[in-house]
Amino acid sequence: MSLPPGLTRRLPFLRWPRPTRALLRSEALAGLTVGLMVIPQGVAYAQLAGMPLITGIYASLLPALAAVLFSASARLSVGPVALTSLLIYAGLAPLAQPGTPEWVDLAVWLALLSGLLQAALGLARFGWLLNLVNSPVLTAFTQAAAVLIVSSQLPALLGFKGGWAQMAAQPAINPSAAAFGLAALVLLWLARRWRPTFPSILVIVLAAAGVSWLVGFEATGGKVIGALPQGLPSLYIPTWPGWHALGQLVLPTLVVTLISFLETASSAKVDNQRKGERWDQDQDLIGQGLAKIVSGLSGAFATSSSFSRSALNLYAGAQTGWATVFSVLVVLGALLFFTPALRHVPQAVLAAIVVVAVVGLLRPREFLRVWRISRVEGVIAAATFAITIAAAPQLYWGVLAGVLMALSHYLYRNLHPRIIEVGLHPDGTLRDRHLWHLPPLAPRTLALRMDAALDFASAGEFERCVVEYLTEHPDTRQVCLLAQPINHIDVTGAEVFARVQAQLNARGVRLLVSGLKLPAEQVLRAAGALAPSPLLQLWRTDAETLAALRDTGEAADAPAPPA
């Protein structure tokens, strides 16, 4: 008996293949690999978000299970990620002190609000809102955030006892911490190149913990993770922060929702392309939103899909969501039995984990690539990068500025559509007459092609082009509109079309419309702009129009009939 399509869409895990022994073996290997990687990464990203370190492991447990059960992309690894953690820190920094109960409450509210917003957008099928952020803006913002993440981890990595401000005022270095950080950085980088599927992060972390315990690193003033609570997370109900504090969380919520799901999109598109399937972005919005809600109710922070862990999951042989189930079991075992082993891990090692994970986001050549493709978008990308860096820690101003600049550019292009006068090229195609120095299609004829929709943004430019030409060429007898590229006409466009037609009728000028598509034709007919008239002719193809222009070439040379 087959299940209803709606049920399998909302519960994607019902589409998982029946587990066989071979499948479970490969899924267990992938889950073990990702699970061993996410435990130390979760602790490191919790530190980056200003949260209690144990919450990084909490965010890797139940949220990952919720996401894999309700997301369409079941092979993605969901949990704490560097960029979302930085956005959480940036959004909460003006409101509370990191690590305090107030900070934790606000982080939980941020996870709940972001999760509710994502789930609502998915249920309303609003995944298309992702298109508001184009690739150059996202690339620039991601790279700026990566620079900020790396710079925030350098003091701990290099063994400085304070942040950047204290480093400049009174530099004090702990040589042992610097040794741990730099050694971990080199080993992690080498292990990543040597064998990506090997759980190098956990091995290095445990080795660092053992060395730290043997040399008495904590006793000499070194910063370590410290004691982590064992056991499962309990239900966490945050205190009411007040309407004013919730209002201050609106912008961080929007940015975390948008950027975290764009991270998901980058991984999900790759996964679905490999499977040859269409990406269900709305279902993934629902799954990611539920993961954030579950994370908040676990007392943790907002989660997202990790590109590096998802790639590792695929590389390790994951085929279904069973791999995530096995990774959750690994995290569960760590929470129940192995958190004491992390007590002596130096915080410099956590900084090295973050740096190695984030440094791959730095791709300066992307700016040159965007610049070569489009100078305007290259400037927008550079401006987004600069504003994000300058606005730190309020990073949301960078992405908001980038989105506004990209939308302004889009609006400008629509307000200035490409409208050209065409002529017949020797190869038989219709091209820009002035660019290729071509003769008119027919004597005393204006032949226009509009490469845009005829709507409220472009209609004024269309009317201006026709009216100015008629003013400069009062002997014009025909206007030919090659309408094949016009995909959409709105009310304003229909009104302007009718107004232009009335001006042509008053001058005794004939209007020929070629290749008008059915949706556009229906709008014009509903507006009464295509009423039968001896001065209006419609042609289905450009070939028919050219033939009509050749047949009427002599008529166009004749004196105009009286108005």
UniProtKB/TrEMBL annotation:
User: What keywords is this UniProt entry annotated with?
Assistant: Membrane, Transmembrane, Transmembrane helix
Transmembrane feature ranges: 22-43, 49-70, 77-96, 108-130, 137-160, 172-190, 202-225, 245-265, 314-338, 344-363, 370-389
Q: Tell me the PROSITE patterns matching this sequence.
A: STAS (PS50801)
Main location (coarse class): membrane
**Keyword Transmembrane listed:** yes
> What is the membrane topology listed in the Swiss-Prot or TrEMBL record?
Multi-pass membrane protein
Q: Where in the cell is it found?
A: Membrane
Q: Which residues form the STAS domain?
A: 443-549
Report the InterPro entries cross-referenced here. Answer: SLC26A/SulP_dom, SLC26A/SulP_fam, STAS_dom, STAS_dom_sf
- What PANTHER family is this protein classified in? SULFATE TRANSPORTER (PTHR11814)
Q: What is this protein called?
A: SulP family inorganic anion transporter
